[in-house]
Amino acid sequence: MPDITEQLQDQIKTARTEARKLSIVGGGSKAFMGRAIDADRLDVSGHSGIVTYQPVELVLTVRAGTPLLEIEAALAKNNQMLSFEPPHFSDASTIGGTLACNQSGPGRPWWSSVRDQVLGVGLINGTGEKLRFGGQVMKNVAGYDVSRTQAGAMGSLGVLTEISLKVLPRPATTVTLSREMRQNEAILFMNARAAEPKPLSAACWLDGKLYLRLSGAQSAVEATAKQWDIPLMTGGDEFWQQLRDQQLPFFAGDQPLWRFSVNSTAPNPPLDGPWLIDWAGSQRWYRGDAELASMEAHAEKAGGQVSLFRGGDRTGEVMHRQLPALQAIQKRLKHSFDPDGLFNPGRLYSWM
User: Fold this and answer.
1) 134 has which bridge partners?
2) What percent of the chain has pLDDT over 90?
3) Are 218 and 228 in the same domain?
4) pLDDT at residue 173 is higher than 60
């Protein structure tokens, strides 16, 4: 259980003295995300290990460089899981990178996001100070919930050292239903099913097929499957794992991958090219060449935002534009944690 906090503090203080910028890297599995930056590597992969795990309390504290595989293996021994189903872009994927990039899997609308499961974090700021926010119990937030600001910050606010999380029991039974369905019909159908008090835990559409996952007590799952009268799919667990880790054929190739986060019932943007619709319609993936400005217009019409998730030009902006008021808040937050702009400069936005 290596704790290299002091080593990381020394490296940060030295970089600050020498006016060097730092690129925070753990397992490196999400290095493709965000804008391309020019900075010295700060390797945090050695800062790993489970600090405390209380199965009865459903609480886990780990160092940020801990691989997801190690965490999930420990939880499996107690029939528990990370409810946000973190994507494994490689075996080296870490919990710190998952939080920094705000990554959650197919069950996100029903089982919550990584941001929602964070109880507290340890952090080293841009002056080399070791800070702690939140706690290690379910009810710990008083004042500003700084821990959750780390979700999606892509390391721009500091170096994560420890993360405390809520965990959940694994569902007793899981099945997958699948049938052919047209895209627009599937969007409405998924939302109608999601509004019912049923054990739905994932819903997506791809290549003319609808996929629904049911998870929970065996009686509830079997009763719902019978009521909905949709054929059972063999190999359902593998399908959802491949969707989570972006290993389906849809994700293969060099064509730019766009991620839309929109109103779940909104009609799909009128773009030619392949689509994958996840989270019952609220997350949509598109493959194709396009300009960010035009994609933003489509996303806003659908009540949401868009980002260039993978591929394409990584030197320009890749995240949806922010209003001036939100930019001002983010810049103030950045200056509070990282006054010299050491960490991942420009990775999230060019102006950060």
Assistant:
1) 120
2) 95
3) yes
4) yes
Q: Is the pLDDT of residue 107 over 50?
A: yes
Give the separation between CA 30 and CA 312, rounded to whole angstroms. 15
Cα–Cα distances in angstroms (integers) from residue 150 to residues 73, 114, 305, in the given order: 25, 10, 19
Check if the beta carbon of residue 280 is closer than 8 Å to that of residue 212: no
Considering the domain architecture, whether residues 219 and 195 belong to the same structural domain is answered as yes
Same domain, 197 and 301: yes
Q: CA dihedral defined by 77, 83, 87, 90, rounded to 10 degrees? A: -20
Name the helix (H) or strand (E) containing 176. Answer: strand 173-180
**CA 84: distance to chain centroid?**
8
Query: Average pLDDT, stretch 85-109?
Result: 97
* Number of domains observed in the structure of the chain: 2
Cα separation of 156 and 140, whole Å?
A: 24
- What angle (nearest 5°) sits at the alpha carbon of residue 85, between those of residues 198 and 114? 100
Q: How far, CA to CA in Å, does 322 sit from each of 134, 283, 315, 333, 348?
A: 27, 19, 18, 15, 11
177 with 165, same domain: the answer is: no
The count of other CB atoms within 10 Å of the CB of residue 145 is 14
How confident is the model over 126-172, as pLDDT tens digits? 999 999 998 765 555 544 578 889 999 999 999 999 999 999 999 99
> Which residues span the domain enclosing 163?
5-169+328-337
3-state secondary structure of 284: strand
Please tell me whether residues 161 and 177 are part of one structural domain.
no
Over range 324-336, report the average pLDDT: 95
CATH number assigned to the domain comprising residue 29: 3.30.465.10
Residue 82, pLDDT > 50, answer: yes
Quick: pLDDT tens for 254-270: 999 999 999 999 999 99
Say how many CA atoms lie within 13 Å of 124 toward its Cβ: 25
